[in-house]
Amino acid sequence: MIKAKKSLGQNFLIDKKILKKITDTTDIENKIILEIGPGTGNLTSYILKKNPKKLFVIEKDNKLAKDLENKFNNQITIINDDVLKINETDLFKEKVIVFGNLPYNISTEILSKWIINLKENFWFESLILMFQKEVADRIIAEFNTPNYGRLSIISNWKLNIKKICDIKPEAFYPKPKIDSTLLYLLPKKNFIKINDPTYLEKLTRIFFNQRRKMLKKPFNQLFNGDQKVLDKLKIDLNLRPQNLNLDTYYKLACEYEKLRG
What we know:
Blueprint: E1 12-13, H1 16-23, E2 32-36, H2 42-49, E3 54-58, H3 62-72, E4 77-79, H4 88-91, E5 96-101, H5 107-116, E6 124-132, H6 133-139, H7 150-158, E7 159-167, E8 172-173, E9 180-187, H8 198-208, H9 216-223, H10 227-233, H11 246-260
Parallel strand pairs: 2-3, 2-5, 3-4, 5-6
Antiparallel strand pairs: 1-8, 6-9, 7-9
Helix pairs in contact: 1-2, 5-7, 7-11, 8-11
């Protein structure tokens, strides 16, 4: 059995029912597939059974990349690199379906990178991704709930997100100490346009920096108490950050962009 590296957040998925469930999430026959962090190739084998047009895998671990090359020969294209350093739009000329048992230590960084870097045209058709359950709960949280925050707002900006299932530690080797969750993410056809997504990042960071405090202080910090913005978006400064819905944050980012522009 291959020894997992803690530094790379490695936990290899071994449960056959879960592996099948993941590849049954969407039709992948004759599609271009990208798998992030294939590890020992367990999910890779199940993807290949579904007859994709082409399968790319990104594996940072040099030893595992070599093992995958020996195991699958020319059935897959291996990119032995860090997923955070790759520009996917340069890599693919047609839309891909992405599978990923994402390393827990960088999963939100990967997702944020993909969302923030998205232009008008999505480079992927869908994302089937596994997260630490606690992170997934924050991604899919609705406003007025304790888990709602920056990650919910940024993730749901350009994506429709559906929870597929929770996965117990027993499905992995070595067993992690926490549960995992599989999410299915699809590009939205319509979303509020924010030309510079860093404004959304900054705005949500400042608003949720003191999530239990009222909106007055962060709003004044960013908008200098601009009453026109409050009236336009019908915002009550006595509310707390978790009480504003997704669209209000996207519209606020647009107003902040105009102010900074």
